[in-house]
Amino acid sequence: MKGASLIAPLGVRIPDDLKEKIQSQAKENGRSTNAEIVQILENSLTSSSDREVEELKSIVAHKDELLKKMQEIIELQKESMSHMESTISSLKSHVSILEDHVTFLKKNCDSNKKPT
Q: Where in the sequence is the domain holding 99, given as residue range(s)?
């Protein structure tokens, strides 16, 4: 470690099983046990808040995207409802015309059945 003579030593008592885990992790990461402990401490003190901020930003971005999609769906539903209302109005008009035709036909039929 560069500048090791400028770093104050710190004696820490840790359980044997934790020490073994740290040594194993240090070996996997290609670091000394001391460098691994320093990295673990740095990660826990600096990165956790950074990670939390990034996670929150990610959540906010995801929720914004969901809100945008929801608004798009609402607009599509409104458009669909407008088309449906137009279709219903048109169908009501057709039904009214057909009712008038039926009434007319019944009158003609009834007048044709009456004896003269």
A: 12-113
- Tens digits of residue pLDDT in 18-58: 999 999 999 999 999 999 999 988 887 776 677 788 889 99
97-110 pLDDT tens trace: 999 999 999 998 87
Q: Is residue 102 part of a domain?
A: yes
Phi then psi for residue 7, to 5 deg, are -100, 130
Q: Are 17 and 27 in contact (CB under 8 A)?
A: no
| Cβ–Cβ < 8 Å for 39, 31 | yes
Does residue 34 form part of some domain?
yes
- Number of domains comprising the chain: 1
Q: Is 3 helix (H, G, I), strand (E, B) or coil?
A: coil
